[in-house]
Design brief:
Order of helices and strands of chain B: HHHHHHHHHHHHHHH
Radius of gyration of chain B: 22 Å
Number of helices of chain B: 15
Largest interface: A-B, 67 and 58 residues
Helix content of chain A: 25-40%
Oligomer: heterodimer
CATH topology of chain B: Formate dehydrogenase/DMSO reductase fold
CATH architecture of chain A: 2-Layer Sandwich
CATH class of chain A: Alpha Beta
Structural class of chain A: alpha+beta
Largest sheet of chain B: none
Structural class of chain B: mainly alpha
Number of strands of chain B: 0
Strand order of the largest sheet of chain A: 8-1-10-9
Distance between the termini of chain B: 17 Å
Strand content of chain B: under 5%
Largest sheet of chain A: 4 strands, mixed
CATH superfamily of chain B: Formate dehydrogenase/DMSO reductase domain
Helix content of chain B: over 70%
Distance between the termini of chain A: 82 Å
Number of domains of chain A: 1
Shape of chain A: elongated
CATH architecture of chain B: Up-down Bundle
CATH topology of chain A: Alpha-Beta Plaits
Order of helices and strands of chain A: HHHHEHEEHEEHEEHHEHEE
Shape of chain B: globular
C-alpha cells in the first residue's frame, strides 16, 4: 500500500497529482477523525434509543423483558392455552370475540381462525388456531429491527411503532398466524358491540399484527390482582366467549390454574413438535363423541 | 451541443430509440411506484400466505448480479491480476446499479418506507436480515465511492473540478475499498441465502447449503453479467477491450465456477430430496409439481440451461472460441441465477408447511401471480439499471475510448 501511495499510477493525470499534493483532500488523521465520529454517533444513538425516548418506555409494553426471543429471563408467569378439539362445536364465537376486542374488522385478517377438518380415521372436527406463542419463536429471531419478541411470560409480542413491514416474520412463521395490514383498516367493526368492544388501537397500514393472547387484559388484570384464566376480565376474549369451555387458559407455573389442571388430566399434543418451536398452545385430540 | 444537433442526433441514431424506449418503461415504473406509495401494498398480488414475490426476486437477483463488482475489484486491486483492470470499472458500475436497483425494490416492498432507517437504529443482531441491511448499506457506500472515482476521471470530472477532486481521493482509497467490499460482499451474499436457510419451519428452505449456493451463484452470475455487458458494448463500438486470451481465461473461470455450483446444487438436491426422502420435503415437492412449473424451471432452466449448458460451452475449447455462443452461455448463467432466486423464494411460500392435525389440506392451497403494478415497478427498476448503464458507458468512460463510434 505504501509504495502505491508514493508512485503515481500511469493512468493518473498529472493535474490530479499536483492538486492532491498542494491541497490534500484528506489526511490519515482526517480519516481517523471521521471514523471516530461515526463510532461515537453510533454509540450515542444506541444510548438515546435505549433511554427515555425509546418506544419501549413510551409504550410500556413489557420491553424491559426484551430478550430477543431466547426466553432466557424468568418470570412468575408462563401463559399457556389448551384447546380441546373434542369439545369444539365450530360456532366461531372465539373468532368474533377476538375480532371485537382486538379490533380486527377485516375477516381476512383474523388472528384466530376456525375451520372444518377431518382426522386420518375420518372423524370430522373443527380445527382452531390462535398464535402458538412459541418459546423458540422463528418469527422473533428474524425481525431486523427487534419489533417482535418473546416476553418473559412467554407471550410473543409486537411493537407496531417499530415494525417496518418487511414481512420476514410472516415468511418465518410456519403456522401462518401473522397478518399484514395490506390496506388501511377503515371498515366498521361489525362484531362490535355484540361480541365486545375494542380494547386496543387499530394498527396502521404497512405493519404486521398477530394474536396477543389479549395481552392488554392479562397485564391490566395482574395489576388489579386478578388471575388470568380464572377472572374473566383478565382472560383472553376467545376463552371467555367459548360456550362449551373448549379453551382453557392460565399460568402453568401455578399448580392450581385451570390450564395446569387440564394439562394434567388430559393427553395433549402441540402442532408440529418436530419443528422445535415449543408452542404454548396445547390441543386435546378430537374424538368420535362429538354430536 | 446546440438544440439543432441534438434534435438531429435524436432523430436517427438507434441509441436514441433505445434511450427513448427505456425512458418510457422507466416512466411507467415511476408511475407504478407512486401508486404503491399512495395506495400501499394492496395493489400487489402478494398475500399473507405469499408475502414475498416478484420484488424480492428482483432484489435478490440485482444484488447477486452485482457481485461482479467485488469479484473483479478483488481480482484487480488485491490479487493484482493486471490484465483484468479494464473490467474493474464496468464491474463496479454494474454493481452500483445492481445495488441501487435492489434498494429501490426494497423501498417499494417494505410496508413502511418511512421507517427504512429503523434497522440502523433498532438492532436485532440475531436477525440475518439486520446483518444484510447493514452490509448492503455499507457496501452501497463503498460502490458509490468507487463510482465517484470513475466519475471524477471522466469528462464530468473535467467539467466540475470538485467532482474530480473527490473522485481522485476515492481513487486512492480503491485498494482499501476492495478489501472492505470483499468482506461485506462475502457476508451478505451468503446471508441472503441464509435468510431462507435458517427458517426451521419450512422444510424446503431449512438447509445449510443455501448460503453457499447463493454466494457461488452470485459470483458466477455477477462475473457473467459484467463480461456479457462488456462484450455487447465491444460489439456495438466495434472495439475490443480484452485480448482474446484474457477473455477466454475469464469465461473459462466462469465455466469452472458454474460447474462447481452445479456440483453442489446436484448434491444438495440428492441429499435433501432424493436419498433422504424426508416426508416434509417430499410433500412440498409433490405439491409444487402438481400446481406450479417448479419441476420444469428447476431442472430445465436452473440446472440444464443455467448450469450445464454454460459450463459445457465455456469449458470445451472448440465451443468457447465462438463469441456468440459464449455470449449465449453468459446470458444463460445470468438467467439461471434470476430463475433460481424466484424458485427459492416462491417454493417455500407457495407450498407452505401443513400444520393442521387434519387431512383435508385446505390450509396448503396457495397461489401467487404478480399484479400489473408489481410488474410495472419491476420493469421500471430494470429500465433504470439499463438506462444507467447506457448513460454511464457514454458519459463516464466506463470503458476506454478508442474512437467516437457508438
Amino acid at each position: 500500500m505504501e509504495d502505491k501511495k508514493n508512485t503515481p499510477k500511469p493512468g493518473d493525470e498529472g493535474e490530479a497529482q499536483t492538486t492532491s499534493k498542494e491541497n490534500p483532500l484528506l489526511t490519515r488523521r482526517d480519516v481517523l477523525k471521521i471514523g471516530g465520529a461515526t463510532l461515537a454517533t453510533a454509540a450515542l444513538t444506541q444510548l438515546v434509543i435505549s433511554g427515555p425516548f425509546s418506544s419501549d418506555a413510551v409504550q410500556g409494553i413489557g420491553r424491559d423483558t426484551h430478550n430477543n426471543g431466547h426466553g432466557d429471563e424468568i418470570s412468575k408467569y408462563q401463559w399457556n392455552m389448551v384447546i380441546d378439539l373434542s369439545r369444539c362445536i365450530g360456532c366461531g364465537y372465539c373468532v368474533k370475540a377476538c375480532q371485537a376486542v382486538n379490533d380486527v374488522p377485516d375477516d381476512e385478517m383474523r388472528w384466530n381462525i376456525v375451520f372444518p377438518e377431518r382426522t386420518e380415521v375420518g372423524v370430522d372436527f373443527y380445527m382452531n388456531r390462535p398464535c402458538q406463542h412459541c418459546q423458540e419463536a422463528p418469527c422473533t429471531r428474524v425481525c431486523p429491527v427487534g419489533a417482535t419478541w418473546v416476553r418473559a411470560d412467554g407471550i410473543v409480542a409486537m411493537d407496531y411503532d417499530r415494525c417496518i413491514g418487511c414481512r420476514y416474520c410472516q415468511v418465518a412463521c410456519p403456522y401462518d398466524v401473522r397478518r399484514f395490514n395490506w390496506r388501511p383498516s377503515e371498515n366498521e367493526n361489525l362484531n362490535v358491540p355484540q361480541w365486545g368492544s375494542p380494547e386496543v388501537e387499530r394498527r396502521p397500514r404497512g405493519v404486521v399484527e398477530k394474536c396477543t393472547f389479549s395481552v392488554q387484559r392479562i397485564d391490566r388484570g395482574l395489576s388489579q390482582s386478578l388471575t388470568p384464566g380464572v377472572d374473566r376480565a383478565a382472560t383472553p376474549a376467545c376463552v371467555n366467549a367459548c360456550p362449551v369451555g373448549a379453551r382453557i387458559f392460565g399460568n402453568i407455573f401455578d399448580a392450581e390454574s385451570p390450564v395446569t389442571k387440564y394439562l394434567k388430566e388430559h393427553e395433549t399434543f402441540r402442532l408440529r413438535e418436530e419443528w422445535g418451536t415449543q408452542p404454548k398452545v396445547h390441543y386435546v385430540r378430537p374424538t368420535n363423541g362429538r354430536s | 451541443m446546440t438544440a439543432n444537433t441534438l434534435a438531429t442526433r435524436l432523430s436517427r441514431s438507434p441509441l436514441s430509440t433505445w434511450l427513448i424506449s427505456l425512458t418510457t418503461t422507466f416512466t411507467i415504473g415511476v408511475i407504478g411506484m407512486i401508486i404503491v406509495l399512495v395506495r400501499g401494498l394492496q395493489v400487489t398480488g402478494l398475500s399473507d400466505r405469499v408475502p414475498w414475490g416478484l420484488w424480492i426476486t428482483l432484489d435478490l437477483s440485482a444484488i447477486a448480479l452485482g457481485a461482479g463488482a467485488f469479484t473483479f475489484s478483488a481480482a484487480v486491486y488485491l490479487f493484482r491480476i493486471k490484465p483484468l483492470a479494464v473490467l474493474a470499472r464496468p464491474a463496479v458500475f454494474i454493481g452500483f446499479l445492481g445495488y441501487s436497483s435492489a434498494m429501490l425494490a426494497l423501498a417499494m416492498d417494505i410496508g413502511r418506507p418511512d421507517r427504512f432507517w429503523h434497522p440502523l437504529v433498532y438492532w436485532n443482531v440475531h436477525s440475518v436480515l439486520w446483518e444484510i441491511t447493514w452490509c448492503v448499506i455499507l457496501y452501497s457506500t463503498v460502490l458509490l465511492l468507487e463510482v465517484l472515482a470513475v466519475a471524477g476521471d471522466s469528462r464530468l470530472g473535467k467539467r466540475w473540478p470538485r467532482l474530480h477532486q473527490i473522485g481522485h481521493f476515492a481513487h486512492r482509497l480503491t485498494p482499501i475499498l476492495a478489501v472492505i467490499g470483499m468482506g461485506l460482499s462475502l457476508l451478505h451474499q451468503s446471508s441472503l441465502g441464509a435468510t431462507y436457510g435458517v427458517l426451521s419451519g419450512r422444510a424446503i428452505w431449512f438447509k445449510p447449503s443455501l448460503p453457499v449456493m447463493f454466494i457461488i451463484s452470485a459470483i458466477a452470475g455477477g462475473m457473467s453479467l459484467t463480461m456479457l455487458a462488456s462484450m455487447i458494448v465491444g460489439l456495438l463500438r466495434r472495439q475490443q477491450f480484452l485480448p482474446d486470451t484474457i477473455c477466454k481465461n475469464v469465461t473459462r473461470t466462469i465455466g469452472f465456477i458454474t460447474l462447481g455450483y452445479l456440483y453442489i446444487k446436484i448434491w444438495d438436491w440428492a441429499a435433501t430430496s432424493y436419498y433422504s426422502n424426508s416426508p416434509a420435503t417430499a410433500d412440498i415437492l409433490s405439491r409444487l409439481h402438481a400446481t406450479t412449473p417448479y419441476t420444469t424451471t428447476f431442472w430445465g432452466v436452473e440446472i440444464l440451461l443455467g448450469g450445464l449448458a454454460p459450463a459445457v460451452i465455456l469449458l470445451i475449447p472448440n465451443l468457447c472460441k465462438r463469441k456468440p455462443l459464449v455470449m449465449f452461455a453468459l446470458a444463460m448463467v445470468v438467467i439461471g441465477v434470476v430463475v433460481n432466486r424466484w424458485n427459492i423464494t416462491l417454493s417455500g411460500l407457495v407450498a407452505p408447511p401443513d400444520w393442521s392435525p387434519g387431512v383435508l389440506g385446505n390450509i396448503v392451497a396457495v397461489s401467487y401471480f404478480p399484479s400489473l403494478v408489481e410488474i410495472c415497478v419491476a420493469i421500471g427498476i430494470v429500465s433504470y439499471a439499463l438506462l444507467g448503464f447506457t448513460l454511464g458507458v457514454r458519459y463516464l468512460e466506463i470503458y476506454p475510448h478508442k474512437s467516437k463510434a457508438r
